[in-house]
Amino acid sequence: MSYAALKIIHVISAIFSYLLFTLRGVWMMQDSPILQRRWVKILPHVIDTVLLASAVTLVTMIHQYPGISTWLSAKIGGLLLYIILGMMALRFGKTRKIKTIAWITAQIVFFYIVLVALTKNPSVFY
User: Fold this and answer.
1) pTM to 2 decimals?
2) Cβ distance 89 to 103 under 8 Å?
3) How far apart are CA 26 and CA 76, in angstroms?
4) Percent of the chain beyond pLDDT 90?
């Protein structure tokens, strides 16, 4: 598969992952029973698997690796923080306030990851 096609798959899966995370956060704040539907529990894993697989393939294609490329290390660090915040927001937060704060913070981290990807600069705020 070409680099361009793989990058499109990566970007589209990142968009779908973010949109679904946002929607699930809204449902969480509304105490919606939709969160308990089977597709809502399975689809994020499918999308995120495509996202991760495309990311790993892109990294090997461009020969830039975490620990060597600072921007890539920042993206992975941001991704780990995003995952932890997402888990707090949608599963492990004790109160709705904690879940909402984690959800909002995860959104900010997601946009940091996108900015780093676009600029190839981990210091996007400097």
Assistant:
1) 0.87
2) yes
3) 26
4) 83
